[in-house]
## 1
Amino acid sequence: MANITHRPDEHIPPAEVPDVHPPHPHTWIGRWVFSQDAKYIAIQYSGTAIAIGLVALVLSWLMRLQLGFPEVFSFSSEAYYQFITMHGMIMVIYLLTAIFLGGFGNYLIPLMVGARDMVFPFVNMLSFWVYLLAVLVLVASFFVPGGPTGAGWTLYPPQAILSGTPGGQDAGIILMLLSLILFIIGFTMGGLNYVVTVLQARTRGMTLMRMPLTVWGIFTATVMALLAFPALFVACVMMLFDRLLGTSFFMPTLVEMGEQLSYGGGSPIVFQHLFWFFGHPEVYIVALPAFGIVSDLISVHARKNVFGYRMMVWAIVIIGALSFIVWAHHMYVSGMHPYFGFFFATTTLIIAVPTAIKVYNWLLTLWRGDIHLTLPMLFALGFVVTFVNGGLTGLFLGNVVVDVPLSDTMFVVAHFHMVMGVAPLMVIFGAIYHWYPLITGRMLNEAMGQIHFWVTFVGTYAIFFPMHYVGLVGVPRRYPEIGDPAFMTFAVDGLNAFISIAAFIVGAAQVLFLFNIAWSARHGRDAGRNPWRAASLEWQTPQVPPRHGNWGDDLPVVYRWAYDYSVPDAPEDFIAQDDPWTPQKVPA
Amino acid sequence: MVVVVALVVVVVGSVVFHMVSPWWWTPIASNWAYIDTTLVITFWITGVVFAAVVLFMAYCVWKFRHQPGRVATFDPENRRLEIWLTAVTALGVAAMLAPGLVVWKQFVTVPDEATDVEVFAQQWSWGFRLPGEDGRLGTSDARLVSADNPLGINPHDRFGQDDVIVASGDLHLPVGKPVKMVLRSIDVLHNFYVPEFRAKMDMVPGMVTYFWFTPTRTGEFEILCAELCGVGHGYMRGYVLIDEETDYQAWLQEQSTFAEQYAGRGVRAASVSP
């Protein structure tokens, strides 16, 4: 472990470039609106993501009203498809991706690697404003004639741009595609920043193998996103051309409602390949930051080093690489050549191995720890349960022939909500409880937090665990109501009503959480310095909360990894990364 | 120790729900019982892993919870344990993948004796076509779709003349004979899905997709569209009836061929025009 902990004979190389202080704003607008400080941009990103996330929450309530009580709340099919489409798109792209990379990435990367800021602060600022524009274009689609697109979040052509789909021949789909294009432009500006900052702006002594797993997760996810989003970008541009200019990238010869259209020669499956070449890495773009953050939460709150740190780093990198060759497992029944199934089922199940290693190492980090059941730890435990559950059902869907009966049923909906909906959200919540004291200097209210955790953990499990069985019965996804067809062994309407009620309660708990965030900013208990006694660098800034430029006059020097907890003979149960302490007797 | 109790309850509750809940898959009506078997194997392996992981975590939380004087063990790595866990996981994954791939090989290998049956989808209805005496389906093209030729059959293809057209109505198939379902759409993506058959496949405009199965019991089975196809998606239903051979032949006699339908409409159109 020589490269991880400090030894007296270790030579820390001098800085390769002189310390550069980030530009200081002199105007109120420069400080509070067009801020170039990554910490402030992180708050802007997170605030916007949570605001648009609330829209997605309300949409989920509306769709659950329809599914749970179709007799009472009978929305039109148009409205129902608009609810599910916008809910999915907002949650996956505009909330989860934005908050993990734009939010946590911006706040934590510079602080955790010992940089003063992102390396390109102006581009970083621009990244947020383009993201905000993307969100506004998305919101605008709710107010245009015809409303937002109802093509499903996968936006499969030809239906996405035809009149049988809400927004297909109106402005809805156009605004959706434009918004995605803007999002990708904005993300690319931020993403290049995160990658270059991690590679170039680490402080002295912060080797790659000393970075916290949070940074590893966000860094790898960003690299993946920079490679995956272009596929979505070109798919959006091509579909926009098909819709507006009459090209036929994705459009074969079509007869719509008895009328011959002028399209011809294109292939709808090409879109699916482009979409999932982005879409599968996207799952890990959300999951890898969550993996990294949860590793750190478990380590800090169990007062124990992350078990198998190097294996954890390699698992993140391997999962990231493998996730680029599994995309067609979303397309087993798409009509692509059936022999692809052999390849993609094999690669998909191979990914289970490094993922399982991560789960084992989280458990082994708890083993012989000193487990403090703080709110971040509770959410971390909740994450492991939901992630393991969702990951295991992935083995059903990844194993090509088992997928055939389950594909396009509610089983799929239950699976991906468990694994990339609830599990990452658990980490986001845990992370907010963990870093809120750093950001505001105050603790979030514990009682409200306990209610939030228990309702969210038990409630989401009550929503999504039974939903697998709705799919197993055979109910397809994207049906506003199933009725009681003969194939059902037992009607699902009672179960659907139960799921809906659980969803309303879980949603209400999120409102309490947001209230807690607002309330505690003024009334929360004073956090003091480093309330969790964490070793990683972000808690060691001269001022808490960290000021502009992060480190005062001198950059910190790093002597060890971020996980020196409960080190034998150490004066305290943690050793900060910038603490040069070494044991009296150096092991040979 | 609420958390420990909650974790145990999650495991026990999940297992009990799985065992006693009335929601389970519909009885199978095709040869794909292997798929069900693979699914059950997967349920067992994943169920055991889920219970083991969550119960182990509950044990850790109980055993190593913070108490005054408790100190965590500094324990960075254990190469042997990590390799051992990796190997066991790889073995479990292989145990699921291997039977899965074997069954997939069967799924994608259409037997020679399978009869072609065409399913035709458009927003939001189903049509069907059976090969006539010659046992071959004629060619088709979306450009030929018209009120007189709703399935877009090529009128100049001799193989298409005796094709049996069921433009609207139920599909009948004989029990016990393998069929290759040839799937065609003329507008958007659809998916031919009958829960009892276990198999499903997307229908893609511009190309022809397929899957095969053998019906194993008679009865009436509902067809559901399983790929979002616009506002009518949830209501795009149809029926397949699996008949004994004699019933099937009786039904077949009542159907008309493409030549009969096309010519008949052609004559009617001609008689009206002058």
## 2
Amino acid sequence: MLKPATKTMNMIEAINSALDIMLAKDPDVVIMGEDVGYFGGVFRATAGLQAKHGKTRVFDTPISECGIIGVGVGMAAYGLRPVPEIQFADYIYPGLDQLVSEAARLRYRSANDFICPMTVRSPFGGGIFGGQTHSQSPESMFTHVCGIKTVIPATPYDAKGLLIAAIEDNDPVVFFEPKRIYNGPFTGYYDRPVEPWSKHEGSDVPQGYYRIDLGKAAVVREGAAVTVLTYGTMVHVVKAVVAEHGIDAEIIDLRTLLPLDIETIEASVKKTGRCMVVHEATRTSGFGAELAAQVQERCFYHLEAPVERVTGFDTPYPHSLEWAYFPGPVRLARAFDKIMKD
Amino acid sequence: MVQSTKDNLAPLHLHIPEPKFRPGDVADFSDIIVPAVDAHPRPDEHVMPADIHPLAYGLVRVLGDDHVASGSWNPGLDVATLKVMLRRMLLLRAFDDRMFRAQRQGKTSFYMKSFGEEATSVATTMALHFDDMCFPSYRQQGILITRDYPLVDMMNQIYSNRGDRLKGRQLPIMYSAKDYGFFSISGNLTTQYPQAVGWAMASASRGDTRISAVWCGDGSTAEGDFHNALTFAAVYNAPVVFQVVNNQWAISSFSGFAGSERTTFAARAIGYGIAGLRVDGNDPLAVYAAMQWAANRARTNGGPTLIEYFTYRGEGHSTSDDPGAYRAAEEYKLWPLGDPVTRLKDHLITIGAWSDAQHEALLVELSEYVKAIQKEAEQNGILGHGLHHPFETMFEDVFEEMPWHLKEQCAQMLEEQEDKFGPDWEAR
């Protein structure tokens, strides 16, 4: 069988390609958001799409996240498949009621009378000197809401396949894009030159349509000593630290936080007997707490050490001190030391 | 630098709005200005919003104190249509009475009547096309009644019984009926406003001919969603009709807490550059005419309109509050704009098309009709009496396909039922 034509893409190009393909494939797909139209988005994710697909398919909106998401719910109720962009995840809160009380519950409260096949894309995470309003990772607010799926890719290949699957999903999806790795797989060593995606296998992206089913994790490194559960930017940081310290870790990129791929997690932790959960978001009530609880419920008698959490600190994301906040190589190395000693 | 002036001025004080009348007072509404019929004549449907600002402060009226319909807003409905309108408002009133009583009898948890504001859901819906999408708040059951939605299905929903199309998930009266152009009601206020705009934008982008209509109350115009929706509708010229049912009260808070001491709700339209109409909400013909004007405007790419229906909530907010605890008794009887049902009845009698005897007979007929349907609905059960949807349906429709964690939790819930009711619980 012939390998499909591929192209080296960074994550922005892969997302743009997914949107382009879905706009062409499905006349119900509509893209809207602040600056996404003529200009093509502040991160260029929608560049060229309005010119190609027209102004009624890809358009700018008022600066009103409540309006953007609320209008999206109404479009979905009509029968469209809206893909709104919230410019930064930090701006999603004005739209929270429309997501939590409306989009997420519409199918349930109407007993399937109305549905909301909407995918809300939003860049999230820090490490770009964005300060406390351009760096947050609010994913656990959405995994806590029943009726929303939460998806976070870590490579261009996954970003495209997951985004296509999210758009085709008949339930609302929050699709968080780790903006620190839009242009290259960040290793956590902020003082080293950025490595471009072209040097990473995850940048070899089919040019046409393909999908990666939601709810399936990826084992990005097989290992026997410890399981690391992570997603987004932290996948690459963990990989770098593991390589540097020669740890035989099994690294699982969750890709979809909800529904969670519990089978992959359970099998891995039972094999390694140790589990570390890693995310950039603040620690308390973060998604790591849910992962730790799931692991102890299902794998307690296989565990040789307490589940270790490596996360951002419980402070707003500080501007000048962001690398003291970020769960980088030092914090990870200390956690590996601790979990491997027990 | 400006020196501090604090020594020279009276201290600042904070204004907390207060309604004019409280329990024990006798309400006096003589300060409410009721303009003459046609004080502001009906403009062309494609008028520029800036040219009709007075309509946002006036009061569109068709039925005069003499019960005669007149003026440029008179929709000229034939007698048969007027009788259908009266019948629907009376059916709504009979339905409300019956269901309110059912709640008092412990057959359900909650009910909300629309007494006194029936015209704002019945007459408006009659002026729309059947396939236009309505985005109601919680007090527009008149839409369903006007579109001939089965009353038994409404009651099944109120009883959350095994016949409930919503599987017993929603608070009573939070209907959903897509086939009848009736959007799922939320309990969160005014969330339907931007949704109605989105629906209308979708319709416009598809070259459809359908428009959307959305309702909220005076109090909930304070929600951000209201203002976001008006911004979007103005920006995209969306074919949507916004309606504020100003019934003066948001539970116990009078409309002053939504800003009515300073301006009208219709005047909110002015800042957004959309058409605004203030309408006598207890004049069914004026309500019909306003919706007809706005719907025609929307359907011909004239854009959105904001209509305020000036009316009065004749009874409590819901079965859960006692209006006697926060407002003057008898306010409704003293309301200067009367009662919408009585006004339509008086109009029909005045034109020789109706009589008191016919009216009394119709009241009896509708009351018996609703009672019979109530019996039918109660065959499917009442709230808390066993005849609900199967337990496992609780986990359905969270997602299109049930993920593993909900399957696990569903199994746990079923085991709990066995612990609670014994091994043969499913057969019982």
